[in-house]
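Our consortium's second objective concerns turning raw sequence data into structural hypotheses that experimental partners can test. To show how far this objective has progressed, the report includes one record in full. It was chosen at random from the queue rather than selected for favorable results. The single chain below, 384 residues long, was entered without modification.
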Amino acid sequence: MTYTASAPLLPRSDDSHFTEWRRTLDWGLVAGIALLAAIGLLMSLAVSPSAAERARIGEPYYFLFRQVLHVSLGLGLMLMISLLDRTWARRFGIVIFLGALLLMCLMPLFGHRVNGAQSWFRLGGISMQPSELIKPGLIILSAWLLSQRERYPSPAWAGAAFGFFAVTLGLFLIQPDVGGAALLSMAFLLSFYISGMPKRWVIGFGAGGAALAVMLYSALPYVQTRVNTVFSPSSVTDRYQMDMTELAIARGGLMGTGPGEGQIKIAIPEAHNDFIFAVIAEEFGLVAIVAVIAIFGLISIRGFRAAARIEDGFARTAAAGLFSLFAVQAAINIGVNLGIVPPTGLPLPFISYGGSAMIGMGLTLGLALALVRGEGTRSRGPYG
């Protein structure tokens, strides 16, 4: 007995929103992001026992179970937001920015200090970092303001975008979160350039950023220490974390010491977060870290290419800015682990342990996927 289906599961005549989403979503990007999350879960399995022991938690796989929850929330949020069309993605991003801006304004009064930075709200056993939400929100708002110049030519739009950026940057520095401020500045500068602003504006903005960096280096001792750790190591008395990271990468060699055989996850407290890349290098070797870098690179290139195809000025600028948040954060974290960038506290997207960071990156790439829907599949026809 043979069975013949009466109709295809998803016929081409089906014009429902879900079907349109399925056909236009860039599943190549989704697959790459899911692969990073899977690598993150594997590494959480490796580092959870040592991290739990250091935190004096009786359950050795506490951090693994928590990371499974974080990944589920982050990827789920990303896919849900990718359902939005460009208009609703813009509205949602602006609402997120305004809400996160309010929370960051309240941070000096009610925030919880961790590792010297007052960046967290804590309610019971739940912690939240609004700065992870405000970054993609600012990119969306800035892209919309800059795109208004196409309809209403006026330098006031660029001034408004810069004003919101300056306020947000100031809130980052109050915490202080210099690493987050640097990431935000680089993504904003790229958005500023892609929106079509004259090069003299971009050069002026870059010069102002360099001057601010010099001021921060001169005024904040901990910034001096972190910068000198890389560029003047002889002047720093404590390079323990960086030395251990370099040793871990050297021990890993080509193929690594083997799963579970690494020592850096025992030696330093942030191995499951800021220095997870060094754990990968030690236990799985050069081959593994090259593969991880390649995945980040391919996702970033595919995202930028999809953004470049967009004709709408707002969506093109916003998508490029959102993908730059992802790409630059990954590059900074990897650079820190390789000892060529000063320590910043920025996690490795989708791989490092952390709830706020995972949700923030899910929001960032969810908005990016919503904005580039259809662009990544254009060369293969309207149905992907």
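The partners drew two points from this record. The chain has a mean pLDDT of 85. The first helix runs from residue 17 to 24. Both points have been shared with the crystallography group to help prioritize constructs.
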